[in-house]
User: Which sequence fits this backbone?
């Protein structure tokens, strides 16, 4: 699969003496050294990553880390100093003005932190603005605009001016305007940062719902890690113009690439992010029903030192748990099978079940948590109570 | 001694020598414009015109402006200065229109091109701070005596605010709106027509208002080169020490100024309050 967007070695330098700054950068000089020597600011430094079709990609970093600059390189609102950007197969960096206009009109739309709405136009006229620039006739563009207005929940506000709307509503207009062109790629620069927290969460939810229907490729910028984790399929973390890690939210939390990232992620509520799949032991010892009788099960318990084993069928379907004392019991009775002592009524987790969702399991049972495939019910792994408790108490040692 | 005056003199002489026919045709055109406007103003009886202007002022700027127009213009007629007032009005309208037609495009150009803006700024300062009398000399050299040199001097004096406020208005358009417009693939013409000019309009209209006011302030000065109108009355008051006549002419100018000010200001205000179309 070719990526929707391919960012290849993008460097952006602000200032006059860019040549010199670029050379210094290649020789490994730091942002501060370059600023002192040439007076140039390094906005983005050699950023490279791919964004897949339909992906919700979040770029996150502190203020001044170069997020907005990098995002604006993608539709060339700012010209990158060097490097290439590909949209599908098209090299955006080499397009002429006309071609670039076409890309901006049809393929890439943008949503802004301060909304950027036209105050002298109604909601309808704002939403239809992109189509108007393309020369779409009034009737047709109003029809399309009406559809997106409904999609973002602004039906009934068509004839209002933006100044009469709340911040959240105004950003819906911004979003509708971007969607009206039916672009493949949505660029969102801190789109929700200007909204108050409640509205913000609501907008996040709605954006995720929309994305479920639309499958756009979204590049979303934020300086808020919680927002990044909530929304992003993958997150790129920037510092001083550099992309220092790209990964899924869970990868970023569990295996931070640098000190900086780990100091960043420390404050995050991991329980909502870490899922069963990253906590589980993927090769648990199991009692295989019909193959292992009481004898075999006991041997496995002795060799592992465990007093509880998950019971599975030959093809790994999870059945339940068996306990040491009960297996001993059936063995003493002379049964040939452990069928009678399998505890089948146990809670299970799926790979994407979060630690938060598994919290009740700690209280309810002293058993490990079985992680099964949501459809086939095959046992994928096992989370020990110890691992679960350590994770929920917030230790970083795992 | 540095004789800048000499050089300017030479330059003006050179201009009149080589562009004589050009100045002549400009003179004819401007003269025709002033006469046409004056003819239109004279087409209907004075009371009809006063009534129309009063209704217009009332619709645009409210009832007080309407009443003021009615009484003010009535007073002017009563004082016997109606023909001169119409002459002055025609002169101002033509001068202001030409000043705006030149000034607004330059203002747009300066807003979009830093270099142009930098070159234009000192020229505008010069035009505005140079004592207005000084413009009379080249005006007379180019166009002789009469209305046309009056229009010329008035244009030069009244144009700077139109340029400046147009530039200011466009530069004041919020950067994020301009950026958003560009991000949707607007050409620079689309950006200008659909976003920058509409958003700059209140400021540009303030420039229009100032240009008209500045043009009006040139009335007396222009009368010194036989441009006629109310300026001539005031001038007569000064030169012949007729205090009464001077004041009457002055009052007529003030009345005209207030009416024009109220009407042109109303356009800027209505714009800002305008809802949708
Ligand atoms: N037009 C410009 N000229 C010079 N330097 C600039 C310009 N725009 C941005 N910069 C610098 O580039 C760096 C990156 O800025 P950028 O706006 O991309 O950061 P950001 O991550 O978006 O920050 P924020 O969260 O504050 O929006 C900063 O050091 C900034 O000062
Ligand atoms: Mg930013």
Assistant:
């Amino acid at each position: 699969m070719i990526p929707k967007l391919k960012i290849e070695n993008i460097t952006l330098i602000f200032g006059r003496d860019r040549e010199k700054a670029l050379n210094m950068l290649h020789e490994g000089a730091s942002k501060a050294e370059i600023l002192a020597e040439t007076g140039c600011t390094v906005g983005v430094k050699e950023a490279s990553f791919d964004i897949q079709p339909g992906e919700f990609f979040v770029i996150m970093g502190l203020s001044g880390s170069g997020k907005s600059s990098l995002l604006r390189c993608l539709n060339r609102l700012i010209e990158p100093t060097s490097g290439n950007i590909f949209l599908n197969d098209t090299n955006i960096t080499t397009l002429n003005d006309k071609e670039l206009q076409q890309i901006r009109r049809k393929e890439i739309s943008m949503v802004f932190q301060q909304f950027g709405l036209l105050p002298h136009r109604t909601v309808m006229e704002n939403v239809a603005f992109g189509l108007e620039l393309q020369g779409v006739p009034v009737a047709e563009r109003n029809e399309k605009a009406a559809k997106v207005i409904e999609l973002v929940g602004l039906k009934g506000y068509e004839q209002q001016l933006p100044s009469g709307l709340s911040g959240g509503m105004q950003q819906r207009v911004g979003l509708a305007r971007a969607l009206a062109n039916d672009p493949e790629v949505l660029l969102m620069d801190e789109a929700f940062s200007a909204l108050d927290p409640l509205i913000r969460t609501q907008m996040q939810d709605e954006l995720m719902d929309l994305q479920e229907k639309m499958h756009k490729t979204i590049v979303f910028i934020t300086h808020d890690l919680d927002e990044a984790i909530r929304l992003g399929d993958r997150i790129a973390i920037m510092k001083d113009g550099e992309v220092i890690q790209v990964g899924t939210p869970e990868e970023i939390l569990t295996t931070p690439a640098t000190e900086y990232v780990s100091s960043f992620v420390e404050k995050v509520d991991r329980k909502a992010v870490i899922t069963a799949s990253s906590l589980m032991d993927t090769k648990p010892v199991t009692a295989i029903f019909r193959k292992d009788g009481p004898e075999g099960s006991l041997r496995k318990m002795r060799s592992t030192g465990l007093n509880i084993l998950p019971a599975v069928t030959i093809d790994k379907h999870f059945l339940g748990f068996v306990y040491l004392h009960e297996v001993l019991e059936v063995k003493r009775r002379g049964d040939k099978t452990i069928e009678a002592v399998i505890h089948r009524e146990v809670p299970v987790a799926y790979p994407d079940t979060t630690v938060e969702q598994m919290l009740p399991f700690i209280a309810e049972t002293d058993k490990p948590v079985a992680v099964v495939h949501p459809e086939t019910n095959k046992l994928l792994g096992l989370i020990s109570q110890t691992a679960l408790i350590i994770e929920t108490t917030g230790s970083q040692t795992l | 001694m540095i004789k800048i005056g000499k050089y300017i003199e030479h330059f003006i002489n050179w201009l009149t020598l080589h562009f004589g026919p050009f100045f002549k045709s400009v003179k004819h055109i401007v003269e025709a414009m002033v006469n046409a406007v004056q003819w239109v103003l004279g087409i209907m009886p004075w009371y009809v015109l006063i009534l129309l202007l009063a209704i217009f002022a009332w619709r645009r700027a409210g009832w007080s402006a309407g009443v003021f127009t009615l009484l003010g213009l009535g007073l002017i007629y009563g004082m016997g200065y109606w023909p001169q007032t119409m002459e002055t009005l025609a002169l101002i309208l033509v001068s202001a229109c030409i000043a705006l037609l030149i000034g607004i495009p330059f203002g747009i150009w300066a807003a979009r091109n830093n270099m142009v803006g930098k070159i234009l700024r000192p020229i505008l300062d010069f035009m505005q701070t140079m004592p207005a009398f000084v413009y009379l000399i080249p005006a007379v050299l180019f166009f002789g005596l009469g209305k046309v040199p009056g229009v010329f001097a008035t244009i030069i004096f009244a144009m700077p605010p139109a340029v400046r406020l147009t530039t200011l208005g466009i530069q004041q358009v919020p950067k994020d709106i301009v950026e958003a417009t560009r991000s949707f693939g607007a050409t620079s013409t689309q950006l200008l027509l659909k976003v920058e000019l509409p958003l700059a309009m209140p400021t540009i209209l303030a420039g229009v208002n100032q240009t008209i006011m500045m043009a009006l302030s040139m009335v007396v000065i222009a009368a010194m080169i036989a441009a006629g109108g109310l300026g001539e009355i005031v001038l007569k008051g000064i030169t012949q020490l007729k205090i009464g006549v001077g004041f009457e002419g002055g009052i007529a100018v003030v009345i005209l100024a207030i009416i024009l000010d109220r009407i042109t200001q109303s356009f800027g205000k209505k714009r800002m309050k305008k809802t949708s179309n």
User: Anything to note?
Assistant: The mean pLDDT of chain B is 90. The radius of gyration of chain B is 21 Å. Chain B touches chain A at residues 174, 176-177, 179-187, 190, 194-195, 198-199, 274-276 (CB under 8 Å).
